[in-house]
Known about the structure:
Mean pLDDT: 90
Helix content: 40-55%
Radius of gyration: 20 Å
Distance between the termini: 13 Å
Largest sheet: 6 strands, mixed
Number of domains: 2
Structural class: alpha+beta
CATH topology of the largest domain: C8orf32 fold
Amino acid sequence: MVDHDTANLLFQRIAKAGIQFSYMQGNCHNRAHIQCMLLASYGVIPAKIWAFAPGIFSVDDSSLISIPDKNMISATGHINWGFHVVPFIMVNQNGHIEPMVFDLALYPNGPVPLEEWKEKLYIPNMLCLKQDWEWYLYNSLPWNLNQLYEDFMNPQNLTQEETTRLLVDVPIHDFFMYELDSKQNHWMEKGLAIDDTAFTFYLNEIKPLQISGANNALLHDYYTLVGDVNNFETVFRDGLGNDEVGYDFQKKHQLIIAQYRTVYLRYLSKWKRTVAKIAQPSGI
């Protein structure tokens, strides 16, 4: 637990750590984890709050958390999340102890109360779970949701709201730590490098076209590539293709893709070095 001034100091240190918070299409789990590593290195033990949209855990509700895309690169002008996760710490404000969230993507000016953060994201039946900070991500649901519903929920004739409350006490996600395969293959560092590369692409290639209003066909292709984090990761992290950014697409844009693969590798090297240094505690 820290006081209000210390919480603001920690927030400013996180803000200056080089994490990219302006590309919000994905990778919140990677941003949350690197922030927690930094906070722990400063001698402060954080936790994480995970907000799950019903589309993640419900058999009859596909709704997702939706926020405006301030960069206007997504197909709909909004970014849809199945989940969102951020760190929080306990803060003593004049004798009142309150969890304060660090979400520099949504609240860039300072820590905010956890309940305020939840209200900003709120959609009906959203599920929030607090976890120790070491839990990095989850694999998948460890059971079939339809079977879960038939066996446990439906016989009780629960409403959707009652089902959500019940699921709060059920370990619906198989969380794992940043170790073994994820650590050895630098999942976090790759995710952070993707954010950096995508936002650099946006600033250098997309934003000038948005301002000039020229070459809408090229702008559309860039939106396809950068507006969907899955497409961007497929091309730059995985070196693969999919239905939207397949062979023909990548051949058409091979020069700029080659250019930004180099950018991605540069950012990846930076994050590998940064993460290695964080292992040395520095104190506040």
